C-alpha cells in the first residue's frame, strides 16, 4: 500500500474520492474531522479492487483483493456473533448488509497514510480529530506506533496501545441504532505521540468499515432531540460532506 502513497500526486489523483460512490483517493488537507487544526493524513477508500488498477504498482491490486476478502469473512463471523448477542436471528445484521461489494453499499477498506511529522508543526496538530464513526462496525489495524485514543464515559482520553496481531473493533453510529441503543459509538481520535515526533517516519494504518445497504432506514436524534429518519446513503453523504467542508473552511 505504501507504494501507492509514494507515487506522484498527479497519479494518485487519477482516482479522486467520488461523492457518489464513496471511494477513491483523499489528498492531504481535503477533509477534517473538526480538530480545529491541521490533520496530517491522506486516505484511499476502496470498495472493490477496481479503483486501483495502477499498472506501475502491480502488487497493489492483489493486496487489495486479498485484504477485502479477508475483512469480509471476518466481518461475517462478527456480525453473526453480534446478532446472537442481541437476541436476534444469526443473520439479522447480514440481512441489513447483503449488498456489500456492490454499488448499493459503502462497505469499504480505508488505508490511511500518515506522512512524517514536519520539524515545525503547529501545537495540537493531529492525524484525525475526535469523531464517531458513521459505520455499523469499524475494524482497525494499527501499526506499532499507536496514537489512537478513545474517550471513556468520564470524558478522559485513553491510549489504545498497539498489540501485535490484534484488530480493534469499534461500534459505529449505525450499530447503536440497529442494536436498540445497547452499544455506544465511542468518540475517538488519532494524535501525534511524542514517540512519533521523535521518529518522524511515514506510517500506514488500515480500517474496514462495514456499512448497511444504501436504502436501509436509519433513525437518529437531531440537535433538538427530535427523531429523524433517513436512508444510510443520505446520512453517509451528509457526514462525508461535513468532513470535506470543514477542511475547505480551515
Ligand atoms: Fe474513526
Q: Could you provide a short overview of the structure?
A:
By secondary structure, the protein is an alpha+beta fold. It is 28% helix and 24% strand.
Summarize the structure in words.
- The relative contact order is 0.18.
- It contains 7 helices and 12 strands.
- A hairpin with a 5-residue loop joins strand 11 and strand 12.
- It is of the alpha+beta class and 250 residues long.
- The protein has one domain: Jelly Rolls (Sandwich).
- Fe (ii) ion binds next to loops.
- The site of fe (ii) ion has 3 residues, from loops.
Assembly form of the protein: single chain
Order of helices and strands: HHEEHHEEEEEEHEHEEEH
CATH top level class name? Mainly Beta
Biggest beta sheet summary: 6 strands, antiparallel
Name the shape in a single word. Answer: globular
- Strand share of the residues? 15-25%
Strand adjacency order, main sheet: 1-2-3-10-5-8
CATH homologous superfamily label: B-lactam Antibiotic, Isopenicillin N Synthase, Chain
Count of spatially separate domains? 1
Q: What is the structural class?
A: alpha+beta
Low-pLDDT residue spans: none
* Count of DSSP H/I helices: 7
Helix content: 25-40%
Cα end-to-end separation? 29 Å
Amino acid at each position: 500500500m505504501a507504494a501507492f502513497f509514494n507515487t506522484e500526486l498527479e497519479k494518485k489523483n487519477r482516482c479522486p474520492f467520488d461523492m457518489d460512490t464513496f471511494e477513491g483517493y483523499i489528498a492531504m488537507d481535503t477533509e477534517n474531522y473538526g480538530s480545529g487544526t491541521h490533520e496530517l493524513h491522506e486516505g484511499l477508500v476502496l470498495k472493490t479492487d477496481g479503483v486501483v488498477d495502477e499498472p506501475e504498482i502491480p502488487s497493489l491490486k492483489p493486496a487489495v483483493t486479498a485484504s477485502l476478502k479477508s475483512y469480509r469473512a471476518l466481518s461475517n463471523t462478527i456480525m453473526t456473533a453480534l446478532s446472537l448477542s442481541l437476541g436476534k436471528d444469526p443473520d439479522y445484521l447480514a440481512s441489513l448488509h447483503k449488498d456489500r461489494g456492490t454499488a448499493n453499499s459503502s462497505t469499504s477498506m480505508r488505508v490511511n497514510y500518515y506522512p512524517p511529522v514536519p520539524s515545525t508543526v503547529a501545537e495540537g496538530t493531529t492525524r484525525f480529530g475526535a469523531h464517531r464513526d458513521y459505520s455499523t462496525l469499524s475494524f482497525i489495524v494499527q501499526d506499532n506506533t499507536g496514537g489512537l485514543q478513545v474517550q471513556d464515559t468520564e470524558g478522559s482520553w485513553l491510549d489504545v496501545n498497539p498489540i501485535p496481531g490484534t484488530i480493534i473493533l469499534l461500534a459505529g453510529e449505525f450499530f447503536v441504532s440497529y442494536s436498540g441503543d445497547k452499544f455506544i459509538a465511542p468518540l475517538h481520535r488519532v494524535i501525534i505521540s511524542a514517540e512519533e515526533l521523535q521518529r518522524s517516519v511515514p506510517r500506514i494504518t488500515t480500517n474496514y468499515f462495514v456499512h448497511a445497504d444504501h436504502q436501509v432506514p436509519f433513525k437518529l436524534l437531531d440537535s433538538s432531540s427530535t427523531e429523524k429518519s433517513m436512508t444510510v446513503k443520505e446520512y453517509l453523504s451528509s457526514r462525508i460532506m461535513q468532513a470535506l467542508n470543514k477542511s475547505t473552511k480551515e
